[in-house]
Amino acid sequence: MELKEIAHINTGFTQKFGIPRQSGLVSEIGHIIFTPEFRNPTFIDGITDYDFLWLLWGFSKNKSLEGGTVRPPRLGGQKHMGVFATRAPYRPNNIGLSSVKLLEIQETEEYGPVLVVSGVDMLDGTPIYDIKPYIPYADAHPEARGGFTDNLSKGEQVKVIFPEEHLNKLPFELRKTAIEILTQDPRAGYDRGKQRDFKLAYHGFDIVFLGNEGEITVTDVVKTEF
């Protein structure tokens, strides 16, 4: 079966490092641009009746999976687990699944209807293969076990020290989400103890930070091209 790209999403994530590990963890906004074939409004008739959508998309910059196990970064990159017991991006088929909140539909002259969504965890330009509505009675299982992620939930956050002199280098509308991303600690588990600079590429800025146990300190914000 050949997958047809129906759209792509524009986000502020230009590099893999720093992209939220799951959708919905931060309030990053994305714009879904349909390919010309799917810009007829009939394709999204009724979509505003739903608050959330499922996006089926492609990991466009990943290496191929070798073997049947992966080493989840959240577990320090040392423990092997079966690929189908994780959400690791390295998979037999490079397919991702995200639940995002539908904020609005923007009618544009150039691209037709554009879906504006929040909670995205995708690289800028990621291809989208399908969109389905999120249905609460069928899709939500709040009492379900979450495997090793039960100990790595939203509650696992770090303190972020973002000096005002550096925070002010970001446009006002980016500051809240930038802090949310850092609060989730973008470092892999095996990098947590390393005393070195880390760099998060976000909306045309490099956010440079140092990490200690349970704490991140931003040391600079540098404007780049986006």
From TrEMBL:
Entry keyword S-adenosyl-L-methionine: yes
Ranges in a coiled coil: none
Keyword annotations: S-adenosyl-L-methionine
InterPro entries: TrmO-like_N, UPF0066_cons_site, YaeB-like, YaeB-like_sf, YaeB_N_sf
Domain TsaA-like: 3-143
Family membership: Belongs to the tRNA methyltransferase O family.
Protein name per UniProt: tRNA (N6-threonylcarbamoyladenosine(37)-N6)-methyltransferase TrmO
Upper lineage: Bacteria, Bacillati, Bacillota, Clostridia, Lachnospirales
Recorded name of the encoding gene: tsaA
